[in-house]
Amino acid sequence: MSVRNIVLWAAVLFSLCAPAFAQSTRIMGGSAGGTKYQFFYDTFLDPALPEVAEMGGGTIGGEGTIHRFIGDRRHRVYFGYDISIDVLPEPNTYRIIFSKLTMTSENARQVFGDNAASWVQVSTPEWSGSAVRTIQAGEVLALDLLTNSTTGQKIVDYITVQTPSSKPPSKLGPLPRDFIYETGTARDFRAEDAQIRIETEGFDVNGTVIPFKGGMTGAAVYFYLPMRGRFILSLTPHPELGFRHAGEIRGSTITFSIDDDTYTIVSAGRVAPGSGPFHLYVLHEPSWLPPSGSNAGTVSGAADRLEHLIGR
């Protein structure tokens, strides 16, 4: 797949005070669409450090105009773009029209809550007309959303459009679509690159289920339970970081024990790549709290590298 770059705008949003490193890191991803197409985005911070705290986002709308937004809850500012997609007569070909992000007051309340009026949209350059691109299904475009003028650190959306899910000749339901983009130079696969993928509706602790609907995908994934702390899960041993062999992964089920408690997670699909059962290594941080504090409830997350989680 080719990658073409569209520089939409540049602005200074976040304060940076630590040295940057070369690697980029994924900070979010998602999709929108309907019966005619599916739009996917994968968002990276490049380079990965310093981190940008309390950054979240998503999309509003499906077929028609899609509002792609990212918000910084610490500073109560947001930015993004509008995108509309036309299906062209040529097979698997789409026209994409980018324009300035528009958010109605109702949209803002849905996204930012009752204090939406206190949020400020980051200003962007004047548009001299919309940016239009024609792409093939699966082709990837890179959009530089924000650039820090001092350090050069960027927030970049990698986007693509795919044909909509179609039903296979069986009763299995729609074929799933997904989009995960990777930056950097290609290299040989290593054991520590193997990812854990969890789609769950809750965490079972000693037979009691704590409801939580969400997904985590990464070389290391974690979840936080109030009064119990954070649990970081890995397929590879890292005794130097405090991980210990605490359980196993069997197909779509994870089980492990910490102290006198047994934890079970049932995923919607296979958790680890490859067949057969695998050892699970866990780092338990009982005093860890999410950025929003002890009232956050259950929280989950993931990272492509363990060092992006340890110490946070």
Model description:
There is one protein chain. The chain is an all-beta fold and 312 residues long. The chain has 2 domains: 3-162, no CATH class; 191-308, no CATH class. 3% of the residues lie in helices and 47% in strands. The chain contains 1 helix and 20 strands. It has one helix spanning 105-112; strands at residues 3-7, 25-33, 38-46, 55-60, 65-72, 77-87, 93-100, 120-121, 131-136, 140-147, 154-162, 196-205, 208-218, 220-225, 229-234, 244-250, 253-258, 261-266, 278-285, 299-303. It has a 9-stranded antiparallel sheet, with no helix packed on it. The radius of gyration is 21 Å and the shape is globular.
Give a short overview.
The chain has 312 residues and is mainly β.
Task: Please tag this protein with its features.
2 domains; globular; nine-stranded antiparallel sheet; 3% helix; mainly beta; 312 residues; 1 helix
Helix-strand category: mainly beta
Major sheet size, sense and barrel closure: 9 strands, antiparallel
Please write the string of helix (H) and strand (E) elements: EEEEEEEHEEEEEEEEEEEEE
Placed side by side, the strands forming the largest sheet appear as 13-12-18-17-16-19-15-14-20
Regions with little confidence, pLDDT below 50 for 5+ residues: 6-22, 166-176
State the helix count: 1
Proportion of β residues? over 45%
Total beta strands = 20
Helix content: under 10%
The end-to-end span amounts to 35 Å
- Summed up, the domain count is 2
**Mean pLDDT, all residues:** 79
Shape: globular
Rg over alpha carbons = 21 Å
